[in-house]
Amino acid sequence: MNKTLLIVDDEQKNINSIKRVLIDEDYKILSATDPIEGLKIFRGKKPAVILLDLRMPEMDGIEFMKEIKPSKDSPFSVIILTGMGSNRDIKECYNLGARAFLQQPINIVEIKSLVRNTFALEQNKHDIRLFRDKLQSLVSERTLDLEKEMEHSKKIAIELKKSNEKLREMMTSTVTVLASVVEMRDPYTAGHQHNVADLAEKIARELGLPEENIIGIRIAGNMHDIGKINIPTEILSKPAKLSTTEFNLIKTHPQAGYDLLKKINFPWNVATIVLQHHEKVDGSGYPNGLKDNEILFESKIIAVADVVEAITKARPYRRGLGSEVALKEIQDKAGTDFDEKVVKACVKLFKEKKYKFPKQENSYYFT
User: Fold this and answer.
1) CA–CA gap between residue 162 and residue 145 (Å, rounded)
2) What is the mean pLDDT of residues 317-346?
3) What's the CA gap between 172 and 364, in Å, rounded?
């Protein structure tokens, strides 16, 4: 694991203070008071985490961030250090990829916790990338092998069946690993995903969708918030209303989820379902403002299940409001926010078939 930490601050005393706070941690700490020198260290040592002063005379933190870009080969997280900063500065830093802000003077407990969590997050992202690449390689190799076997043997039907079973097992493992990463960071999000997957599956069955589509919907439901791995934990678990800047950061999670999943060759369009699960039929959703027929039907199902679960169950900032309130919400917004057929099927499940969310347990498997 890359445990290199780079501190860039034009005040040596600030650097010394941070080093003293983190002296007992297992980090390789590099530092620079000159931003230009900091860029050279960054490019040469490829740190996993950067503590970056926002206000510096020769080059401020925003200009520094414009010079560095994360890549597959050198991912990293940036924590901004600032004694003062406008909302505009904060928004621009977030847009450039900053993970969090720390006010100076530094709080010992806060910086230790934030740096530790940031390193853990980088490790989780690294593990996901390795697992995804390995899975992609295995699937590609096995597909090529099967194509060759098809030319030479009638036994291909049996082999193909076995291969599909193995592929499904591999896909199950992928879902389990990805969902468990979220669960380690935010148990609430993990439980929410499990419930949404279950309700979405039941809605799909009520609507008579083919079994293969239902499997894809359940998988997408179990990972629809995987993009929240990029959101700071303190925002996800904030026991109060989010600021505009924080909510704008939350709204990046469908795209982040899509970027994580798009390179995995699922037999279903999981990445796009995840990308579109906050779109609305009247075009007022995000991230792309899609309208009715531009949105995958599977995403419309996830959208309804997502809202019903979120209203019914407890949130970090309030108690659960119950299914009656949730059903009224989707009925009131049927045809504007939500697909009318999906809303009708969901209401029928609760009112006529007495649907209840499952007890919390791992439910990543395919049904």
Assistant:
1) 13
2) 93
3) 7
